[in-house]
Specification:
Blueprint: H1 3-10, E1 17-19, E2 31-33, E3 53-54, E4 59-63, H2 66-69, H3 81-87, E5 103-108, E6 146-159, E7 162-176, E8 182-183, E9 188-190, E10 196-201, E11 205-213, E12 222-225
Antiparallel strand pairs: 1-2, 3-4, 4-5, 5-6, 6-7, 7-11, 8-9, 9-10, 10-11, 11-12
């Protein structure tokens, strides 16, 4: 579906946490949700939180809206639109609200978002109250970070004068590009040998594989595979 590209572009998950200076792991219970979050001040814990994040295991499972609702001060959406809006009427104006019934599974590696606070993201040794990103690197580029997103949903279609539910799925692999990669005028990343890596996303990443199925829209199977490599092994830390 056309909206999947927009949903993927939005998933630059902003996960910033406050925490005690001596904390360095989720298991310690001293890294807390950031100010402004619905759970502000509460400790991150192992296992899934009420929004669908499992920071210890590098996983998210739940409503697409719940990726963002918590950090903007809203409680998790649990499937009942009327009940939710009765308690949180301004949520209807949140940009993710139209996608609340899209189901999302995200997986990522330690370079993307760690389950530790070892220091600053350039390799410091004093915990800074945040789960590490691209630890040991000044940016994501060259860090070997990767993420996958698997979305699914449904919509109504008319078939033979009857309304039926059409189901769709979308899967994408995203990697941090190597330090010697270059981006062309069409926003496509290429490796040092000028082989295409994939379309740019978020400035430091490339989409290396996408698979979409939406039978009523005539979309089936792989939509893109990187000529460089559609696998994560080619894009490890440098």
């Amino acid at each position: 579906m056309k909206k999947t590209a927009m949903l993927i572009m939005a998933l630059a998950a902003c996960l910033v946490f406050s925490g005690a200076a001596v904390a360095d792991t989720i298991k310690d219970g001293t890294i807390t949700y950031s100010p402004g979050h619905f759970l502000a001040g509460q400790p991150l814990k192992t296992g899934y939180d009420i929004f669908g994040y499992n920071y210890q295991a590098h996983l998210f499972n739940g409503s697409y809206a719940n990726v963002y609702l918590g950090r903007d001060g809203f409680p998790p959406y649990e499937g009942d639109t009327e009940a939710y809006l009765a308690e949180n009427p301004t949520a209807e104006n949140h940009w993710t609200w139209p996608y609340r019934d899209v189901l999302l599974t995200m997986k990522w590696n330690d370079a993307w978002i760690s389950n530790q606070d070892r220091g600053d993201d350039a390799g410091g040794t004093v915990p800074d109250g945040k789960l590490d990103r691209h630890y040991g690197y000044s940016s994501y580029i060259g860090s070997g970070a990767w993420e996958t997103n698997h979305m699914s949903g449904s919509y109504e279609v008319e078939v033979n004068d009857k309304m039926k539910k059409a189901h769709w799925t979308y899967f994408v692999k995203i990697v941090a590009v190597p330090s010697d990669a270059t981006k062309d005028a069409d926003l496509i990343w290429h490796d040092a040998d000028s082989v295409e890596i994939g379309p740019d996303i978020w400035g430091a990443f490339a989409e290396i594989q996408s698979v979409e199925n939406d039978p009523f829209a005539g979309i089936h199977g792989k939509q893109y595979g990187s000529p460089c490599s559609p696998g994560f092994g080619r894009y490890g830390p440098e």
